[in-house]
Predict the structure of tRNA-2-methylthio-N(6)-dimethylallyladenosine synthase.
Amino acid sequence: MEKIIDETKQGETLVLEPQKANTKKLFIESYGCQMNFSDSEIVASILADQGYNTTTQLEDADLVLVNTCSIRDRAEQTVRKRLEKYNAVKKINPTMKVGVLGCMAERLKSKFLEEEKIVDLVVGPDAYKDLPNLLEEVEEGRDAINVILSKEETYGDIAPVRLQSNGVTAFVSITRGCDNMCTFCVVPFTRGRERSRDPQSIIEEVNDLASRGYKEVTLLGQNVDSFLWYGGGLKKDFDKASEMAKATAVNFSDLLALVAEAQPKMRIRFSTSNPQDMTLDVIRTMAKYDNICNYIHLPVQSGSDRILKEMNRLHTRQEYFDLIDNIRKIIPDCGISQDIITGFPTETEEDHQDTLSLLEYVKYDFGFMFAYSERPGTMAARKLEDDIPLAVKKRRLAEVIALQLEHSHINTLKQVGRIVEVLIEKESKKSDAEWSGRNSQNTVVVFPKEHYKVGDFVNVEITSCTTSTLKGKAVGYSSNN
Ligand code: SAH
Ligand code: F3S
């Protein structure tokens, strides 16, 4: 299934329209979550002001940056292979500088410079505005590092440049960091405390995207439901805020409504929701606005109450079911997807069966499934032995994936014969005679191009399907055009 993340896959190289005055060449590659791709756009925007144009040719670059992911060991190994490649090129072109950005930079800090000596520059996710100074140091022949995590930085004042995209869909960051401390997860350590971005700057970015022809935005955060703006400051300090700040505070449900009303013709999506923080208000707001897509990515990680507790996921299996029931009551045709980890420390066969029975109950549309990978420094690594053999983790993973595929197919089959609204994003990977887009529930739909074009909202009659893709024929423009 294409939605299973392949961490060995080549990263994506960002390309921007060249600025004439710029003479230096930047090769910037990104791995990991959508937030990293979004951050690379911010970095490229900062460096465009420093005389850099982007290039897709590694060999031509003056500066090579890799935005990295630490979420699982595999992700780090992939980046390491790339660093080897950059260093091989550097042997031929010794003036080239190499920098590591993002979560691995934050996790390994100066180790890259002192022990491994494989990079010139190490920059954590909250330090990108310091890049001009850091580059100056590098130019002067010194190694440069800034991995300070911030309690305020949201890059709200930097307009990311998005010229490499399809011009139709864009990501807009609304929070950074995470305070949840799930015991398996490295994110709170690499991305720091959770901060919300000023809603005004979010709306301005969305309005700007709309004026440039974009048709869909995805609001991004590690845990969007805990978005809270009361004039700045961390969420934990909200109680100390003035009465006025509290009265005018904007939560995630409010933000969704603001964005939906600011651009009623734009599709609005968001990711990721944590079940413990998702409120009924958010679900009701989704139901109220037609332009908010009927799709929720709702990671569960495990179906066992005991494992959920060990993971510090602050909800039970039953509470999760109640949330699912409420979503389906309020938005009957809502697409729902999951993240699941198999083989978390101490997971028994019975716990694993609980995960399978949870899948049976929810019957998700699709999912992202992973074998547990111990991350140094996390609570799980400190307190629990990584005691499930790899073969067992993988067998359980295969069982979870097989069941998910069955459910995905049941769900796509249900769509056959229906007419769904699709936003055309790009040419289909398999055929240059077909368009590819998604329906509101986030399932990919492909259909013959005819006279339609990228960016059109089209009604498509579904005629067949695979486990993850719907196929059909356009029957006309949708009323949203
Ligand atoms: N809230 C975040 C979650 C980031 S991590 C978001 O915005 O998506 C994405 C997924 O990676 C998690 O939901 C979890 O299923 C998986 N994951 C995180 N740490 C992991 C680990 N140590 N081993 C295996 N999978 C992990
Ligand atoms: Fe990680 Fe849990 Fe936050 S999975 S990103 S600590 S919600």
Summary: The first strand starts at residue 12 and ends at 13. The mean pLDDT is 93. The chain has three domains: 2-146, 169-413, 419-477.
